[in-house]
Amino acid sequence: MADTDAHPITVAIERRIDPTRTAEATSWMQAGTDLATAFPGFLGSGWVRAGEDSDLWYMLYRFRDITTLEEWESSTQRQWWLDSGRPFAREERSERRTGIEGWFDAPHGSILEAATVTEAGTQPIQQPVPAAPPRWKQAVTIWVGFFPTNLAASWLLGFVPGFAEIPLVLRVLATTLMLTPVMTYAVLPWVTRMLQPWLQRPRRSRKATS
């Protein structure tokens, strides 16, 4: 199995919903979420609407890896669920995110289903799905995390007796083996949280800057 197959995968699906059947669509979306939770590798699922008057709805789900994702997507349970929604739901677009782009997803919880309880019952909070930041911002963020981490590691390894005499290829191999999990599980999540307002800041139009 390839290395990329072991990464968690987030799937975002855009659907158009018949506005006259909103109540049915709400129950249908929740049923899909409930079905997915029973599958191995399931990491989270939810849905949001683009706006109160919009017929665009977004559903997201996340699985441990490509194998568990495909088990869900090819299951008879999901096929039954999809068939039951065809009269009022039409899929427009589907996107998978994994690897480096996964570090720049919106914060956990902000694109999953949220709800508020009123006298009329539980109502979904409607909010747009944030887009991933531009690639140049992703590159800057990775550099901001990688430079001090690599600098600190190089300084500390300088105190290891005989490390400087090890062949360059082996030194780089040892360094990357040590730093990759540190970057993935500690540095990048922290840096992206700190830079989130900048990463998610909307682009200013040329008219606004002129």
TrEMBL record:
<dbReference type="InterPro" id="IPR011008">
    <property type="entry name" value="Dimeric_a/b-barrel"/>
</dbReference>
<dbReference type="Pfam" id="PF03992">
    <property type="entry name" value="ABM"/>
</dbReference>
<protein>
    <recommendedName>
        <fullName>ABM domain-containing protein</fullName>
    </recommendedName>
</protein>
<feature type="transmembrane region" description="Helical">
    <location>
        <begin position="168"/>
        <end position="191"/>
    </location>
</feature>
<feature type="transmembrane region" description="Helical">
    <location>
        <begin position="140"/>
        <end position="162"/>
    </location>
</feature>
<keyword id="KW-0812">Transmembrane</keyword>
<keyword id="KW-0472">Membrane</keyword>
<keyword id="KW-1133">Transmembrane helix</keyword>
<dbReference type="InterPro" id="IPR038762">
    <property type="entry name" value="ABM_predict"/>
</dbReference>
<dbReference type="InterPro" id="IPR007138">
    <property type="entry name" value="ABM_dom"/>
</dbReference>
<feature type="domain" description="ABM">
    <location>
        <begin position="8"/>
        <end position="78"/>
    </location>
</feature>
